[in-house]
Structure to design on (187 residues):
């Protein structure tokens, strides 16, 4: 009985720590978004090179990956291991494709003259989207770890906190991207 209460308290403490971490990340991204908005209005002509259709596809991929996280968690809760593993694999695949498209987009921007060193707008744009991309990369690596552990039988119907914990981070990354996509590409 004592062990179960201790384990539940440990889980709640880890969730609270994740929420604190995510709150600090919200402040970090708020500053980056504000800096971008300032540069966007100061240098409006540089916004023209952004590729909205390609980034819309990337947004769809990231949102679909978030759905796959929800699907993975639901699958392990009903002990559907195949659906669980497939969903986790899909998360990693979609996150990787997101990063590949972002790299392709960055390459195209450099051909258009927009780089990290091309001026204040480029610095603000690449800092904001690059830090988000770094968060996606961390999430892809984490998804790979969760998949590996799942493949080796770590998670069960009764013990799947690691999947839920990862999901908090991944959903945060998606919410931040929705804000970035709206502010950077649509406004």
């Amino acid at each position: 009985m004592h062990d179960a209460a201790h384990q539940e308290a440990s889980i709640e403490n880890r969730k609270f720590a994740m929420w604190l971490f995510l709150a600090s990340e919200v402040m970090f991204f708020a500053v980056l978004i504000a800096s971008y908005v300032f540069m966007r209005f100061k240098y409006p002509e540089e916004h023209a090179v952004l590729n909205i259709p390609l980034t819309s596809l990337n947004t769809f991929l990231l949102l679909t990956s978030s759905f796959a996280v929800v699907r993975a968690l639901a699958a392990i809760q009903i002990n559907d291991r195949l659906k669980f593993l497939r969903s986790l694999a899909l998360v990693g695949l979609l996150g990787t494709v997101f990063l590949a498209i972002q790299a392709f987009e960055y390459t195209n921007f450099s051909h258009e003259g927009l780089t990290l060193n091309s001026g204040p707008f480029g610095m603000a744009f690449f800092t904001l989207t690059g830090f988000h991309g770094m968060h996606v990369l961390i999430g892809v690596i984490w998804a790979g770890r969760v998949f590996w552990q799942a493949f080796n039988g770590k998670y069960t119907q009764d013990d799947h906190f690691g999947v839920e914990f990862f999901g908090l981070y991944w959903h945060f990354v998606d919410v931040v991207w929705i804000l970035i996509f709206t502010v950077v590409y649509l406004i």
